[in-house]
Design goal:
Largest sheet: 6 strands, antiparallel
Structural class: alpha+beta
Number of strands: 18
Bound molecules: guanosine-5'-diphosphate, manganese (II) ion
Helix content: 25-40%
Radius of gyration: 26 Å
Distance between the termini: 44 Å
Number of helices: 12
Strand content: 15-25%
Shape: elongated
Length: 384
């Protein structure tokens, strides 16, 4: 999950890193912040390039502050509505440096990038970036940071080194996928300050990151997908509100494959879903939730149920599915059901008794997909 800058900076400040004083404001008339001007007004959207797009503004006083807030709040940047701005104490002087850590999953290493020349045009200053990689432990990262920062201009190297060392510890402690500071302000006296922070968390590590979990749960409107997963224990993401096919599927990889294959057939999936049938334990709540969302979607033509069961018993799943259908009578789209694996025969027999809802059982994945996508000619009796 990509954190908003404001939350990323709260996190870094909690780790003792120097972050400019700042507050989040959702309205223009809240009064001045409790620290002196000049202020920087920064739109909180989960995309970069705000400076160039006019969503970072310097305000010398209250009038300019209100003006900038009025201009940004409610505006849209790259498809994201600005609901909040971070207003912070402007960093008066300082060179703009750059530091980042990111997971290189293929090599099981951490990529480390440092540069004395950061800022909004960092991509065009690629020649100045020193890159390396190290094992994901403090000592290995420290050694790599020493090596890389030794090559930077002498005036700035100690500050970038100190910042990078402190940041590397947060990166490891919080199980981050990406921690990028651009700009890292470095003043003439060698002190440094976090100018901007881009943080991507590893959502699979949230179980052991109570502070990150707390943040997500407290900001459920900002991080709806992750908050949903934490609350309900499974993935359900609306991909296209106008999508035509609802998916009730298990397995993240298989679900993604289905979404892709539908796109290739020219139909759009309404949702991505990993229902984790093995964890439902006799409770159809997850299915009821998914079917409710589909019943409320305006353009769904069919619901594709695709469950491949190893340990899960499909007869149990079929029972839960029938109970969920009973609980969501407003769902009128037909179901295309593919159940393969443990308990298949009993599940099929049980579903044969399902009445009141149009469905077709199709054990072949390609045919099930084609029927759901409306590509294959449907026989009238299939949806009798
Ligand atoms: P981004 O464009 O979305 O990456 O937003 P940033 O937070 O990185 O801000 C973009 C640029 O605005 C920075 O590279 C700085 O040049 C400038 N900027 C942001 N905050 C400050 C500040 O406190 N003081 C100064 N002098 N410049 C700032
Ligand atoms: Mn930036």
């Amino acid at each position: 999950m990509l954190m908003l800058e404001h939350h990323a900076k709260l996190l870094l400040a909690e780790h003792g890193l120097p972050v400019p004083e700042g507050i989040a404001l959702a309205g223009a008339d809240a009064g001045p912040p409790p620290f002196p001007a000049p202020w920087v007004v920064k739109a909180q959207v989960p995309v970069g390039g705000r400076g160039k797009a006019g969503f970072i503004a310097l305000a010398q006083g209250e009038d300019e502050l209100r003006g900038a807030l009025r201009r940004m709040l409610g505006a849209t940047m790259k498809g994201h509505a600005v609901r909040e701005c971070r207003v912070e104490r402007a960093v008066a002087d300082g060179q703009e440096a750059y530091v980042s850590f990111s997971i290189d999953a293929k090599r099981a290493l951490v990529n480390v990038l440092v540069s004395a020349e950061g800022g909004v045009d960092v991509e065009r200053k690629a020649h100045a970036i020193r890159t390396g990689a190290a094992a994901p432990d403090e000592a290995a990262l420290a050694a790599e940071i020493d090596r890389l920062t030794a090559a930077l201009p002498q005036a700035i190297a100690p500050a970038v080194r100190a910042a990078a060392l402190a940041l590397s510890r947060v990166f490891l402690a919080r199980d981050l996928m990406l921690l990028e500071i651009n700009p890292l302000f470095v003043r003439a006296d060698g002190s440094w300050m976090i100018g901007d922070a881009k943080v991507i968390t590893d959502d699979n590590a949230l179980a052991r990151q109570p502070r990150l979990r707390q943040l997500v749960e407290g900001e459920a409107a900002t991080y709806p997908d992750v908050a949903f997963k934490l609350a309900h224990g499974f993935d359900f993401v609306i991909l296209d509100p106008e999508g035509e096919i609802g998916l009730v599927t298990t397995g993240a990889g298989l679900s993604m494959k289905l979404v892709d294959e539908m796109a290739a057939k020219g139909v759009s999936a309404f949702n991505f879903c990993d229902i984790r049938s093995g964890q439902m334990r006799g409770d159809p709540a997850r299915l009821i939730y998914a079917l409710h969302r589909m019943a409320a979607a305006p353009r769904i033509r069919a619901v594709l149920v695709n469950i491949f069961a190893g340990i899960t018993n499909l007869a149990e799943f079929a029972d839960l599915l029938m109970r969920a259908l009973d609980a969501v009578p407003e769902l009128t789209a037909p179901l295309v059901i593919r159940l393969v694996g443990n308990g298949e025969a009993r599940a099929t027999a049980m579903l044969g008794a399902l009445d009141g809802h149009a469905f077709v059982l199709e054990p072949d994945l390609d045919r099930a997909l084609a029927i759901a996508a409306g590509v294959a000619p449907r026989k009238a009796e299939q949806f009798a």
